[in-house]
Amino acid sequence: MIAAARISAALVSLALLLTPPALAQGTSVSLGIEGHDSTQPVEITSEQLSVNQQSGQAEFTGNVIVGQGDLVMTCERMLVEYGSGDGGNNEIRLIRMFGGVTFVGSSEAAEADEAVYTLAEDTIVLTGNVLVTQGATAISGNQLTYNLQSGSGAVSGNVKTVLNPGQN
Q: Can you name the CATH fold of 4-162?
């Protein structure tokens, strides 16, 4: 798996698509991970795992690290919701992450209290104390909605941006 220094993502909250008025109130963000392939295998490591076949949920707790291709997410607790896919196989539909969620790209990083990764939509929504750093620039807010396919995102709710001219 990828080293902790390359931790690439904190994911899990609800995949909400921002309406144009909400985007107008936020700040656009790119984390440099466009074109992500959500059909790649998902590898998860943790200290404990509990599975409930009836509800179609698996709960991972303790130093959770999730990897999918170049994407790496970390948190303290993660709930995975799965169900039957087109071919009758079990497939992961939604990943909810709680506690110290982190997402790191090549030169950008994002962190939040919680995150939701909706695989079918290639969307990650981070909520609660969101902080995005891009070089010497920092952006904070209540929510970051990020599309892994297009590589675009938006921060909304109490957005604060700190620019350091000449240091980016």
A: lipopolysaccharide transport protein A fold (2.60.450)
